[in-house]
């Protein structure tokens, strides 16, 4: 009767309980195994992306060696070390109203700068920023330049309307075009290749200033291109305008590049280069730097292979804002495929560049205790929801590894330049110390920096600044100053347009 039924129920319950706990144990074992697999992916990433200071010093040396090689002969290095024909940097004496165009990444800027003939901490200028319509990046040169010229024309009309100043002389423009250009003079040059996702085939091999001038006359805008430069040269110009100890400039935005002031006689591939100053700004095009010492991961290899410019711009692809978010996406995708900690693999994880670097920065810098921002971005952008805290922490860690490597490599690049010009403290008394000055006192060295990745991403900036100090050591690092030059690439172009305006004479000669 009742007793047997009760016993049966009790037994049944015991069996069920056993089964449930067996399932739970198996589940825990499975989830532990899953967790171990993603941790392994993270550890492999950390190992492949490691940037111990010894490794960074190898990158420093490689950078200095490649700089020498690129200066010695055409094609002597992956570093093109391009002449800019800029031999004098602004010093504050510039005077007049000048325009500038800044094209070369995500944003496009039009500027007008008013120069008073004496150095001023607050340079009077107006800027108009807009995103470049995506389709123009891969259309025709005519479409791209007509767009630029019409934006400029509108801007000029508004500005001149506001200022109510009658136009006294022909307008002059500094054009910042941040792609590799073989300069033929300070105001003209030929596009060597596109980078950063631009691909307009009919433009390669053509004179950039001429394309702009033609578009301006088509649009009925009367303006002369007085200087054709890239963003790093503009940033160096603004840096030097404010502080004459500025000897180099670095861009860390959508892409990355650097330039510095070199002695004309050190540019061996250009024998007989005469400049009034005895120096010339060299555009390194360091985005294309490569060395076997760079800590490369399988994600970098895949990103490169999937890009429109494989085997090109290797340094840029590890460092700059266009790519960092996509490296993170690739790591998350790999983890999601190795285990189901992110749930079923979201189709969004296969979409290239869907995780933009500013979003990556937001996740990295999420300081809410439950990582709410990480959860939101995973959900809204990657369509991955209900991610446990432990996994969200893992995502933050991925961002950290990728950004830390990028920032530290950029720092090594900067120290490489300092080494090349004898400002890294290793060259002994003569090179880095004040000439004729008291022994042991090092010369002040300023590096101007611009770009949204450096200015907008706090963790990146901290890692870069710390790595420069770490590589140089405190004694030397106290004499090296990294200075942000907001809008330097554009304002610097206007400054260079002023110093190379129609009224001034060209001082560079090629014998
Ligand atoms: P460009 O002149 O090349 O268009 P910017 O100097 O304006 O570049 O920088 C824009 C790029 O910098 C963006 O594409 C992005 O990759 C990166 N960036 C901008 N702001 C941030 C931010 N807050 N966090 C991380 N990256 C950022
Ligand atoms: Mg820029």
From TrEMBL:
Residues 248-498 form the Hexokinase C-terminal domain. Belongs to the hexokinase family. CDD domains: ASKHA_NBD_HK_plant. The keyword RNA-binding does not apply. It comes from Escallonia herrerae. Keywords: ATP-binding, Glycolysis, Kinase, Membrane, Nucleotide-binding, Transferase, Transmembrane, Transmembrane helix. Residues 42-241 form the Hexokinase N-terminal domain. PROSITE patterns: HEXOKINASE_1 (PS00378), HEXOKINASE_2 (PS51748). Its EC number is 2.7.1.-. This is Phosphotransferase. The chain crosses the membrane at residues 6-27. The keyword Methyltransferase does not apply. One of its GO terms (cellular component) is cytosol. InterPro entries: ATPase_NBD, Hexokinase, Hexokinase_BS, Hexokinase_C, Hexokinase_N. Pathway: Carbohydrate metabolism; hexose metabolism; Carbohydrate degradation; glycolysis; D-glyceraldehyde 3-phosphate and glycerone phosphate from D-glucose: step 1/4. GO terms for biological process: glycolytic process; intracellular glucose homeostasis. GO terms for molecular function: ATP binding; D-glucose binding; glucokinase activity.
